[in-house]
Amino acid sequence: MNRFFKVTERGSSIRTEIGAGLTTFMAMAYILMVNAGMFAELDGVTYGAVYIATAISAVLGTVCIGLLANLPLAQAPGMGLNAFFVYTACMTFGLSYANALVLVLCDGVIFILLTVTGLRKAIFDAIPARIKTAISAGIGLFIAFLGLQNAGIVVDDGATLVNLRSFNLLGGNVTWADVFPALVTIVAVFAIGAMAKKKIKGAVMWGILGASVVYYAVGLITVPGFYAAAVAPNLSSDFLGAFKDFAALSFGKVFTEGFDFSAYIAAHGTFDFVVMFVTTMLAFCMVDMFDTLGTLYGACAAGNMLTEDGEVPNMNRAMLSDAIATCCGSIMGTSTVTTFVEASSGVAEGGRTGLSAMSSAAFFFIAMFLSPVAQLIPTYACAAALIYVGVLMMANVKDIEWSDPITAVSCFLTIAMMPLTYNISYGIAFGLLSYIFLKVLTGKGKEINAGTWVIGILFTIMFFVSR
């Protein structure tokens, strides 16, 4: 292991690498519950099936980046991309679960081709740097908004579309049973922030577990009839049931049902389908690519692992690992697999090689067999994780040059339109189109990349024919 992963050469030790892998796992483990809970909102998809799919995808992706790129990073179905899959591709566009998996598979295949042929850089350069920065922040705001909704903190009051839920126990029409779950989420977000400030390892994971304990303790003590809705799981039957659901509902669904788009075409027409397919797949690919590139640079820079030229070591292999993992994820039955920014916590603990990634993969493998216990995690605990991850992803707004009107307008629209339209691709489209128009109107049209024009035209067609 020492020779293969060059542990000593990179100034680390086997013990340090394994410890760093555990730290990364603890920081990322929340994705197992959050991803499964999000996908369970789709018809015909169960929590257990997606939990297993998420765990297997994380194992495969993390092993891949460890062996191919020898980097101390880890992969799993990405936050933001899973929301795009569930709430945009399926719930907004009306694609079936299996149809959306085809888009993920195509994303992975295109990612592989772009990486192997070197075209990845051309696509990356087609998106203005200011828009790339805003995409991450917009997704963060969107994820936080989803968490606030899932927790019942932000509600539709029928008049203003969004409002703060009532906490008026004295004179309102709400009961303690209605209010306390939202309070659990709020306290959990505060607790995660405090633990992160204290640099406690796995703050998000501990926040989820702590919120779960509080939720059940308070509910059992103060809410009549709460126990009936919180019965302990049958470990043997629930364990086998999760794997059975995975085999029947998730694994291979992309091939058995995914390529049948007849229902969508019948409802929307062939041309609408083609435009929707191209633009949605493009959005998947762009978000995946920018997220991966940003995470690779950020994590490696934090660990002083960049090359003399300021590049990520084994960059192409790392990107190829991400693309392969995405293809595997679609086959397993989950959304795009990407490198997690939380892996930087393992780098901070001294992880410098792929052995750290192999350690994280081992812990994900063990966690795969804990799905019955994971199903006890309430939505309100996972909502706290969504909100805090949104906080982390908003950090990029500090790099936006708000004093420049072109940058300010395009970035603001990118960020704001994602949660306000409940659609990530619309945010990217508004940001890119506003950038193009403002450049042209200010006499700087020649500065626009040819690839930017192509992507802008595709998004324009999407608006005029698909809605």
Radius of gyration, taken over Cα atoms and rounded to an integer in Å: 22 Å
Report the span from N to C terminus: 55 Å
Average pLDDT number: 85
How many beta-strand runs?
4
The largest sheet is: 2 strands, antiparallel
Strand % is under 5%
Helix % is 55-70%
Number of separate helices: 22
How would you write the strand order of the largest sheet? 1-4
Contiguous uncertain segments of 5+ residues: 232-237
Helix/strand-derived category reads: mainly alpha
Shape: globular
Order of helices and strands: HHHHEHHHHEEHHHHHHHEHHHHHHH
Write the layout of secondary structure elements.
Layout: H1 2-5, H2 14-28, H3 30-39, H4 47-68, E1 75-77, H5 81-90, H6 97-117, H7 120-126, H8 129-150, E2 154-155, E3 163-164, H9 176-197, H10 203-222, H11 235-250, H12 253-256, H13 262-268, H14 270-302, H15 315-332, E4 337-339, H16 344-348, H17 354-367, H18 371-374, H19 379-393, H20 405-421, H21 424-441, H22 450-466
Mind explaining what this structure looks like?
- By secondary structure, the chain is mainly α.
- The protein has 22 helices and four strands.
- Helix 13 (262-268) packs across helix 14 (270-302).
- The chain is globular and about 65 Å long.
- The model is unreliable at 232-237 (pLDDT under 50).
